Amino acid sequence: MAITQSGSAPPVTAAQRILDVAEQLAQTRGFNGFSYADVAAELSLTKASLHYHFPSKADLGRALIERYHQVFLGALEEIDRRIPAADARLQRYVDLYDSVMRKNRMCLCGMLAAEYTTLPAAMQDQLRRFFDANESWLATVLDDGRAAGVLAFRGTARERAQMVLGSLEGAMLVARAYDDGPRFRAAATLVLSDLRADPA
Amino acid sequence: MAITQSGSAPPVTAAQRILDVAEQLAQTRGFNGFSYADVAAELSLTKASLHYHFPSKADLGRALIERYHQVFLGALEEIDRRIPAADARLQRYVDLYDSVMRKNRMCLCGMLAAEYTTLPAAMQDQLRRFFDANESWLATVLDDGRAAGVLAFRGTARERAQMVLGSLEGAMLVARAYDDGPRFRAAATLVLSDLRADPA
DNA sequence: GTCTATACAGCGATAGAC
DNA sequence: GTCTATCGCTGTATAGAC
Fold first, then answer.
1. B83 contacts: CB under 8 Å, gap ≥ 6
2. What is the pLDDT of residues B15-25, one digit of tens each?
3. What is the 3-state secondary structure (H, E, C) of A162-187?
4. Is A33 part of the contact surface with chain B (CB cutoff 8 Å)?
5. CA atom of B32 to C1′ atom of D16, Å
6. 10 Å Cβ neighbour count for A51?
7. Closest by Cβ to B106, choosing from A114, A154, A166
8. If B138 and its partner were Cys, which of B4, B31, B161, B168 is the partner (CB 3.0–4.6 Å)?
C-alpha cells in the first residue's frame, strides 16, 4: 500500500492540479496575466498536455469559476449549518475573504471583474451569478439580523448586501497593492461595525 | 482665423491624444488588455509613431498614472476651494467617481490595482502614491467633519478613509460587471450615509 | 494522457527612409 | 513626427507519435 493516496483519500487528478495552479495565477496576476506555459512550467508538464484537459483557455476559465463558486457555496452552507447568529455569520463571511488575503491572493471573481470586458461571454455570465449568489446570501443574513435586532443599518437588505460585497472586494483590491493584510482586516471590521445595532 | 484651436485654446498634442485613447482603453480593458496596435488604430497612426512619443509601454503607463493623478489632485483642490462643509465635500468626492462610471469606465488606479503584480515597479510606486493622496485628503475631510459635528463614524479618520476609498473602488468594480451605474450610486450613498451624524 | 513539433497571430520594440 | 518594414518573442492552439 502506497504512502500517498492510500485508502479513501480522493485521487488528485491532473485536471485538479491544473486548476489549482491556474487559480493561484489568476488570483495574483489575473486571467489575462498568465499563460498555459506558466501553468505547464509549474507542473513540469507541456502546454499540449494542458490542452488535452482544457482545450481552450476559455474552457479553463469556465472550470475555474465553476469550482470557485462551488467551494464558496459549500463554505456558506457550512456557516449556515454551524453559526446561528446573523452578526457571527457575517464575521465568518469576512473570514472567508481574509483567508484569501492571507494567501496573498485577490478574490478570483473580484480579479475577473476588473477584466470583465475582455472575458468570454460564458465567463461573464458565471461571474455575475457568483456575485448574485453572494448578494442573496448576504441579503438573507442581513434581513434575519435586522429582524432579530442584532443588526441595524440604512437601506434595504439587498442594497446593503451589494454595498458590503463591493466594500470587501475593494478593500482586498487596494490592500493587496500594499501587501497589507491588516489594512484589509481593519477596513472589513469597519464595514461590519456599521451594521451593529448596539451603539459605540 | 480657423474655427478650431483658435485664439488661446491650448493645442492638443499628439501625446495628449495618445494618452486619451490609452487611458480609455486602460480603464475599460486594463493595462495588459490593450496594445499599441489598439491605440494606433483608434488614432489612425502606426505603432512606430506611438513609440516615438512613448518609447516603451512602461513609459506610457507612467505618463498615464501621472496625468490621472494630477487631474485628480486638481479636482480635489477645486472641491477644497469651493465647498466648505465636510459632508458636502465627500459627496463631491463620490461624484468624481460617479463621473467615471458614467463613462462606462473603471477608476484607472482601481483597475491597475488588480494588475498590480504584473506592473513595472515604477507604476506600482505611482499607484500607491495615488491611493496615499486620496487617503490623506479623505482623512482630513473626515477629521474636520467629525470635529465640526457634521460627521460621526467608528474608527480613526485614517482607517475610515481607507475603508471609504476601498468601498468606492469595489463598488465601481462590481457595478461595472452589471453595467449598472445606479448600483454604484446606491452603494456609494450607503457608504456616505454611514458617516452622517444625524440619525435616520 | 503526455510528448515533440509546429502553425499562426499578436505583442513590444527598433532601423532607417521621408 | 510619421512612415514601411522587420525582428524576436510569446500567446493560444493543433497534429500526430508514443
1. B89, B92
2. 999 999 999 99
3. HHHHHHHHHHHHHHHHCCCHHHHHHH
4. yes
5. 35
6. 15
7. A114
8. B161
Å between A163 CA and nearest CA of chain B: 5
Which one-letter amino acid corresponds to residue A109?
C
Confidence band for B199, pLDDT divided at 50, 70 and 90:
low
> Would you place residue A1 in the very low, low, confident or very high pLDDT band (cuts 50, 70, 90)?
very low
**Alpha carbon distances (Å) from A194 to A55, A117, B64:** 47, 33, 36
Mutate to test the interface with A, among B101, B107, B134, B174 (most CBs of A within 10 A): B174
pLDDT digits (tens, 9 = 90+) for B114-129: 999 999 999 999 999 9
pTM of the full predicted structure? 0.96
Q: State how far the Cα of A74 lies from the Cα of B102, in Å rounded to an integer.
A: 36
Footprint of strand D on the protein (CB under 7 A): A 34-38, 47-48, 51, 55-58; B 13-14, 44-49, 52-53
Using left for φ > 0, alpha for ψ between -120 and 50, and beta otherwise, residue A83 falls in beta
In eight-state DSSP terms, residue A199 is: -
